[in-house]
């Protein structure tokens, strides 16, 4: 086994004490670094999580573009499906939980297309259809339907 003493022969006790002091200093510095890293992890903000055992997934089944009321506006109809893939019931999202977002940061709220969204909780395994509409500028591109609900974000790309 090769040690510091065989690689660098130490002839005096003083040199040995210096190497021990350097070793202790390095160990203390590494301990301080580890303590700092663990403190940063422990103080990180906590994200709200949905109720245990529930997860609401969002899918777009049909999207349809139509001419809007104005020449530079297009109307987008969306037929979506929510699925509770968890083992517990999940609160139903509100229409305000949905937006259409463009890659450039612009955001548009959606509206129910025919009837209001059901407020009944989603049971485990339940699928629920939601029809929505949004008026968008004709120049809007790289769109996503986004649902932010109870700390959970679901995002689905749209064809623009």
Mind explaining what this structure looks like?
By secondary structure, the protein is α+β, with helices and mostly antiparallel strands. Helices cover 21% and strands 36% of the residues. It is built from two helices and eight strands; from the N terminus they run ααββββββββ. It has a four-stranded antiparallel sheet, with no helix packed on it. Strands 4-3-7-8 form a four-stranded antiparallel sheet, with no helix packed on it. The chain is elongated. It starts with a helix and ends with a strand.
Quote the distance from N terminus to C terminus. Answer: 68 Å
Q: What are the segments in which pLDDT stays under 50 over at least 5 consecutive residues?
A: none
Number of helices: 2
- Average pLDDT, rounded to a whole number, is 80
- Described by the principal axes of the CA atoms, the overall outline is elongated
Q: What gyration radius follows from the Cα positions, in whole Å? A: 29 Å
Count the strands?
Answer: 8
The succession of helices and strands, N to C, reads: HHEEEEEEEE
Largest sheet: number of strands, sense, barrel closure: 4 strands, antiparallel
Helicity range of the residues? 10-25%
Instruction: Tell me the β content.
Output: 35-45%
Given helix and strand content, the structural type is: alpha+beta
* Biggest sheet strand line-up: 1-2-6-5
Produce the secondary structure layout.
Layout: H1 4-7, H2 13-42, E1 56-67, E2 73-84, E3 98-102, E4 107-109, E5 111-112, E6 127-137, E7 143-149, E8 152-157
Antiparallel strand pairs: 1-2, 2-6, 3-4, 3-7, 5-6, 7-8
């Amino acid at each position: 086994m090769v040690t510091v003493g065989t690689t660098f022969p130490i002839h005096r006790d003083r040199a040995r004490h210096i190497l021990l002091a350097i070793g202790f200093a390095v160990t203390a510095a590494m301990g301080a670094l580890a303590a700092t890293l663990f403190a940063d992890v422990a103080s990180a903000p906590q994200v709200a999580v949905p109720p245990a055992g529930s997860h609401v997934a969002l899918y777009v089944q049909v999207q349809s573009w139509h001419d809007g009321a104005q020449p530079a506006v297009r109307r987008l109809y969306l037929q979506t499906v929510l699925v509770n893939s968890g083992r517990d019931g999940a609160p139903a999202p509100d229409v305000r939980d949905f937006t259409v977002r463009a890659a450039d940061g612009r955001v548009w709220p959606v509206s129910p297309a025919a009837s209001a969204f059901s407020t009944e909780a989603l049971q485990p395994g339940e699928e629920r259809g939601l029809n929505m509409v949004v008026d968008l500028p004709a120049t809007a591109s790289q769109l996503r339907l986004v649902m932010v609900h109870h700390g959970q974000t679901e995002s689905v790309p749209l064809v623009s």
